[in-house]
Design goal:
Strand content: 15-25%
CATH class of the largest domain: Mainly Beta
Radius of gyration: 26 Å
CATH topology of the largest domain: Molybdopterin biosynthesis moeA protein, domain 3
CATH architecture of the largest domain: Beta Complex
Strand order of the largest sheet: 8-5-7-6-9
Amino acid sequence: MVDDPPMRSVDEHLAKVLGGIGTVAPIELPLLEAQGLLLAENIVTRVPLPGFDNSAMDGYAVRAVDTRGASEQHPLELPVVGDVVAGTKSRNGMGPGLAMRIMTGAPVPAGADAVIPLEKTDRGLARVRITEPAHSGDSVRRGPAGGLPGPLFRGGDRPAADRPARRDRTGAGAGPAASPRRRDLDRQ
């Protein structure tokens, strides 16, 4: 009969496994090549991000004052005068009493100070019915005044395909990454 090794508790086994895993020195990689690795330190932008006020969700860019009194019982109707898509370079303006359809990440048009989410509307194309008032700043991510330079990713983060890497025009976005390393564990 073969003697079975003594049973280990979960904590003992975990300590044994973790004791056999070492750390490695950070390596320098472009951010887009660091997928699957842990960041060894913060990656910091040198410029304010975003560089402009942009929509935090799909909806309609409006002037908040124009939506006062909107409710389910008394929806407010505004003419839709255009679309603003993500990636747009120009920022068309809009006047009082108007709305523009806007995508997440698109620049908020001059004259608008809020975004009404699609869910609070009838999703109209030529005219939109709004069922809830907006407040200035609703669903707007602020640009240079509100988006100060700082960490894009923090040390210990794992860049992943579902978290797109952001870079500025200077090529910032490269940084040290901790590479996974395999060490043989003794089999005692």
